[in-house]
Design goal:
This protein is mainly α. About 75% of the residues lie in helices and about 0% in strands. The chain has a single domain, classed as MetI-like fold (Orthogonal Bundle).
C-alpha cells in the first residue's frame, strides 16, 4: 500500500518538474509569440495600425515621394499620378506631409503618455499609501484641475508658455495625469491594505520598495 500511494506522488512531482523545465527552456520571444497568438482580433488590428505608424515615422525619407516642406506644384492641385493626395495651400505634397507627420504624432503621443503615467501614477501611489493630509491635498488639487475644461485650460497655458513642442508635451501630460492619478489611487488603495503589504512594512521596508515591489505589480493590469 505504501508503494502504491507514493508512486503516483513521485510521478506527479516528476511531471511538475518536467513542465517547469520545459517552461524554462522557452525563450522570452517564444512566450511572447504564444501570447500574441492568443490575442483577440482587436489587439491584432491595433498592433498593425501602430506598426504602420512606426514604419512611416522611421522610414519617412524613404517612403515619402517628396520632402516634407518642398513646394512642387500649384496650391490646391488635384490628386493625380505625381501627387496622390493633391497639394496643400502652398503647393506641398499632402501624402508626403502625412507620412512625415507620423513622426510628430507618435513622438508627442508617446512622450505625453509616458510623462502622464509617471506623474499621475507616482502621485497616485504616494497618495494611496500615505492616506494623510498629502492625500487630501493631492486629491483636491486634481479635482480642481479636472473641473476646468481641458481644451480651454490647455489653450490658456499655451498662450502663456508658448506653443513649442516641449510646452505642448508638458501641458498635455499634466492634464492627462489627473485621470491617471484617480485610477491609480483608487486601485492602489485596495492593494495597500493587503496582508503582504502590511508584512512588508513590518519588515521595515521603505516606501519606495513597497510601492515598487508590492503594490505596482498588482495594479498594472487596470492601468
Amino acid at each position: 500500500m505504501t508503494n502504491d500511494n507514493t508512486k503516483p506522488s513521485a510521478d506527479g512531482y516528476s511531471a511538475v518538474a518536467e513542465v517547469a523545465e520545459i517552461r524554462m527552456r522557452r525563450s522570452r520571444w517564444q512566450r511572447m509569440w504564444i501570447a500574441l497568438k492568443k490575442a483577440p482580433l482587436t489587439a491584432w488590428f491595433g498592433m498593425i495600425v501602430i506598426s504602420g505608424y512606426l514604419i512611416c515615422a522611421l522610414f519617412a525619407p524613404l517612403l515619402a515621394p517628396y520632402g516634407e516642406a518642398e513646394v512642387f506644384a500649384t496650391p490646391f492641385a488635384p490628386w493625380g499620378d505625381e501627387h496622390r493626395f493633391g497639394t496643400d495651400q502652398i503647393g506641398r505634397d499632402v501624402l508626403s506631409r502625412l507620412i512625415y507627420g507620423a513622426r510628430n504624432t507618435i513622438g508627442i503621443a508617446l512622450a505625453t503618455t509616458l510623462l502622464s503615467f509617471l506623474i499621475g501614477g507616482g502621485l497616485g501611489l504616494v497618495a494611496a499609501i500615505n492616506r494623510s493630509w498629502l492625500d487630501q491635498l493631492l486629491s483636491r488639487f486634481v479635482d480642481v484641475l479636472m473641473a476646468i475644461p481641458s481644451l480651454i485650460f490647455a489653450l490658456m497655458l499655451l498662450s502663456i508658455f508658448g506653443s513649442t513642442i516641449t510646452s505642448l508635451i508638458i501641458i498635455i501630460a499634466v492634464l492627462d495625469s489627473t485621470r491617471v492619478f484617480r485610477l491609480t489611487r483608487s486601485v492602489a488603495v485596495n492593494v495597500a491594505v493587503m496582508d503582504y503589504v502590511e508584512a512588508a512594512r513590518l519588515r521595515g521596508e521603505g516606501l519606495g520598495w513597497v510601492m515598487r515591489r508590492e503594490i505596482l505589480p498588482n495594479i498594472m493590469p487596470p492601468l
